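Can't paste images in this forum, so I'm doing it all in text. The chain is below; anyone willing to post the predicted C-alpha cells underneath?
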Amino acid sequence: MRKQTLLNQGWKFTYHDGTVQDVDIPHTWNNIDGQDGGNDYWRGTCCYSKTFPKPEFDSEREVVYLEFRGVNASAKVVLNGTTVMTHDGGYSTFRADITALLKEENELYVEADNSVNDRVYPQKADFTFYGGIYRDVYLIVVNKCHFDMDYFAGPGIAVTPTVVGSDGSVRVQTWTNCEKGKVSVALLDGEGKTVAEGEGTDVTLTIPKVHLWDGVEDPYLYTCKAVLSAGGEDKDEISTSFGVRTFRVDPKEGFFLNGRSYPLRGVSRHQDWKGIGNALTKEHHETDMAIIKEMGVNTIRLAHYQHDQYFYDLCDKEGMVVWAEIPYISEHMPNGRENTISQMKELIVQNYNHPSIVTWGISNEITISTKDKADMLDNHRVLNDLIHQMDPTRPTTLACYAMCGPFNKVAHLSDLVSWNLYLGWYVPGLFLNDLWIDFFHAVYPNRCLGYSEYGCEAMTNLHSSHPKREDQTEEYQCVYHEYLLKCFEKRPFMWATHVWNMFDFAADARDQGGEPGMNHKGLVTFDRKIRKDSFYLYKAYWTKQPFVHICSKRYVDRCEDTTMVKVYSNCGRVKLLANGKQVAELAGDKVFTFQVPLKGEVKLEAIAGSCHDEAVIRHVDAPNPDYVLKKGEGVGKNWV
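Text version of the structure:
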C-alpha cells in the first residue's frame, strides 16, 4: 500500500543575507530573533534546498506525492527547475503529485516567506510570526488508483458519528480517483476488533452498545479503516481514529457532553518554545500535553491557527475538548478574504475526524483595528455559512476583543461567542468581570457566552508582599486568577473559559516585565521549566490527586516582621510549620493563608494528609531590588 518517507534530514538553508548553513527540518530562522524583542527580528523570504534520490516505485502502477505539514507563511516549491506548487497559509498541510518531474537525483528548492503583506493571515497579532519549514516533509508513494489526496490535502475520508439509543451510527464518506474501484469499510474497537463492516463511498454502519468518547475520564477511540480495490486487487488503504460522542451548548446551563453537564474549564495554547520557536518535535508536543493534563484541564483553545496534527491526535487520546481556529485576527484585510476561506477549508477538511474538536473559530479580536467594517462583517457571514455547509455537526464561534462591546454586530454572527477580557489587568477593577458577564447574560440570555482569554503577566523573578495590578509579580497573578476562578464558579452558564495562556510565548512587539519580545501571561514559563504559583491554584481547583504547594517560594527576602504565607491544596486541611513548630492548621477550600513571624531564616513546611511541601524565606532589613522592575524596563508597553 502507501509508503511514506520522511525528508527532514540534510537541507541547505540560505538566509536573506546569503549565509548558507546545514539544517534539519523542522526549522525556523526566527527561533532567537523572534523571541528577544529586538530590532533584528527579520521577516521575509529565505530558501531551503536539498537533493534526494528517486524513491522506489512502479511507474506503471504508482505515483509520488510531496507533502509539507507546515511552511510559514507562504511557500513556493520547485522541483528540478519546475514550480510544483505554491501555498498561502503557514499552519496547514499541502501536497502535490511530483511523479512526472522525478529524476534519479532530484533538486528540491523551497522559498519560505513570512514577509509583511495584505493578503495572507496573520499579519497583525500579539505573537511572533516565525518563518521556515517548521513541520515535517514527506514523500508518499501511492497506487495510481487511490483515495483522494488533492482536496485541500485532506485524508480522503470523513467519519460522522452519532448516537442512537445505546448504539453508535457512523457515516463514513470516502473520495477516490478510481471510478471502477470498490471501497470496503471496517470499524475497529480500541483493541483492534472489527465491530462493523460495509461497502461503498458513503456508508452508514452501526456499532452496537457503543463505547462513548467521554472527555478526560474516558477518551475512548475507534478506528475506521477503508480499503480501495479494483480488478480484484487492493490498491490503497487509509485509516483514521474517531470517537463517538454527543455534545450541546446551552445558554443557561453551559456545555453538555454525552447528556451530562460538563463545564469546559481550560487553557489556550501557543505552539512555540524558548530557543526553538515553532519548530517543535513530537516530544515537545507530548511535554506540553503532559503539563496541561497535570493541571486538570479538560478543554484547550488551540490559538490562533491550525496546530500540528500530532497535537490534535494527543487531544483526542487525552480527552481534551478543543476549540480550533484560523488566524483571521486583529485586522480585516479586504485582499485577504480568499485566504480566510482557503485556510478555513483546510482546517475543516484536515481536522474533521477529530472527536476532540467541538467548535470552529472564525476570528479573534477582528475589530481591534479593522477599517472596512461592512466588508469584515460580510466575510464573517461567508465563513459562518461555509462552516455550516462543510460541517453541520459543529457550531461556529469567535473571540471578541474587549472593546468590541456587547452590542457589536460581529459578536452575534456565530453560533457561540467568547470574549477576550482582561478586566483587572489592563484596566482596574476585578469586580468588573462580574458586572460584564451578568450584564451580557441579562441582555442576551439566549446567547451562549464564554471567556476565550483572561490572564495577566507574571515574571518568576518579580515579587511583592503587596501585589498590585501591572506590577508583573507572581503574587498579583495569583490574586487575579483566584478572583476569576470564583467568578466563573458562580456562573455555570458560561459555556467555556480558557486561560490566556498555558505557556509564556514569544510576542516580538512587546516589551514588558524586563524581558522584551515576550508575553508572560503563561502559567508555565516559555522553556516549560517553571510552573508559576497560579498553575497550582488551577491544579487545586481542577485535580483530585492530593497535593500541597507553598506559594512565593522564589520570594525569599522579605522585610516585614510578620509575613503572609499562602498555600494551595485540593485537600480540606493544611498544617504549616515554621522551623519545625506549628504555625496553624486550617480547614479550607483550595486557598489557605497563614501569618508567620519572620526572624532570620525560616524553613516552611506545609502538610496536607500525606502531601508535603517546603520553602525557605528570610527576614532582611532592606527590600531586595531584584524583585522589582527597574526603571525603563518596559512596565507597560503592550503590542499595539
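The chain has a mean pLDDT of 96. The first helix runs from residue 282 to 294.
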